[in-house]
Specification:
It contains 14 helices and eleven strands. The longest helix is centred in the middle third of the chain and has 19 residues.
């Protein structure tokens, strides 16, 4: 039987269903007043199999990439949705990864001041991380996740079998967020992931199911009591301070989870230099999980340290004159600082260039 989570929200509570068979898709296919929005990449793979039961006339196939995560794509959806007879009683069911989640979640939260929304995540990143938390995020020009809303789906259905067809690069991106959450879960969870990492890479079904559940439980522990990201939940942005800057300066050529791996490596260098993280633990984390799963190969020189620091200055979570950063310590506790000097960031990037090249 599937193990379910009920997540409490100030907007509305929602449930996560861990599905052990694809039968749930048949049930979704007969929901009244429904519009099905499917990632084009997912549709290409599953249109004749798992998704063949969806009513074609009610299905929108949406081309998806990072460049499409913006208001223009949301407007494309609005144009199609307003033509449908269902209005406030519309039921949007989206099937795809985190980018589709952001686009359809934003559309669902804003059209007719909000309609019912169900999400079926099909990527490791979406299943293990982004599917919960209520956030929708859109890029604005070159700025990452500058626009968004808080709007949880009514239900989330996780079927890890979808991960078997995910591309290696996208799977590696999702693994970056899994590593982050297992680090944030403490030493034992980190050690457990080190032992399971090869099984994750081999996509063993039992292990995928386990690490997705563990990741969501860790994220939920940081979200509890801070749904709108004003306190402890902000620590979930560990690895994202440098990571978002890398995404922006590479014009989003670096997948999100890979950028997070980069960001964790940089944050750990600074934590070590500030005396928070021992050199031994920093090297263990880097050598056991982060560097072996770093598959992107840009050089820091090619991307530009100054450009990355400029991007960090535009981080929407920045509150002081200097840069913001989330770091861990030797007891796997996390803290946010707002006094990271640009020279410190540049020094860490220079050291990281040597480490990764």
């Amino acid at each position: 039987m599937p193990v379910n989570l009920t997540i409490h929200s100030n907007i509305h509570d929602y449930d996560v269903f861990f599905e052990d068979s694809p039968d749930f898709i048949q049930h979704l296919a007969i929901q009244p007043n429904s519009c099905y929005i499917v990632d084009e990449n997912v549709w290409t793979i599953y249109q004749e199999t798992l998704l063949s039961v969806l009513p074609k006339i009610e299905t929108i196939i949406l081309p998806i990439n990072e460049d499409r995560k913006n208001l223009a794509t949301v407007q494309e959806l609005y144009d199609q949705l307003v033509e449908r007879p269902a209005k406030r009683n519309m039921n949007i069911i989206s099937i795809g990864g985190g980018i589709l989640q952001d686009i359809t979640g934003f559309a669902a939260s804003t059209i007719y001041r909000g309609v019912n929304w169900i999400f079926v995540p099909t990527t490791l990143l979406a299943q293990a991380d982004s599917c919960i938390g209520s956030k929708t995020s859109l890029n604005y020009h070159k700025y990452k996740n500058l626009i968004g809303t808080f709007y949880p789906p009514a239900n989330i259905h996780i079927f890890t079998q979808f991960l078997q067809s995910q591309s290696d690069s996208d799977f590696s991106s999702g693994f970056g967020e899994v590593i982050k959450l297992h680090l944030m879960g403490g030493r034992d969870l980190f050690s457990n992931l080190v032992e399971l990492s090869q099984s994750v890479i081999n996509r063993e079904p039992r292990v995928l199911h386990k690490i997705v559940q563990q990741s969501l439980n860790v994220k939920l522990s940081y979200m509890s009591g801070d749904e709108f990201d004003t306190g402890r939940r902000n620590l979930l942005n560990y690895g994202h301070d440098f990571g978002h800057a890398l995404e922006s300066t590479s014009s989003f050529a670096i997948p999100h989870g890979q950028a997070v791996i980069f960001g964790m490596l940089a944050a750990n260098i600074i934590a070590r230099k500030r005396g928070l993280l021992s050199s031994d633990l920093e090297k263990t984390i880097a050598n056991k999980l982060l560097i072996p799963n770093w598959v992107s190969k840009p050089t820091i020189n090619a991307l530009g340290k100054n450009e990355m620091i400029d991007a960090m200055k535009k981080d929407k979570k920045r509150t002081g004159n200097n840069l913001a950063l989330i770091m861990m310590n030797d007891t796997f506790e996390f803290t946010r600082v707002n006094d990271l000097f640009p020279d410190e960031a540049a020094s860490a990037l220079a050291e990281l260039q040597i480490m990764l090249n």
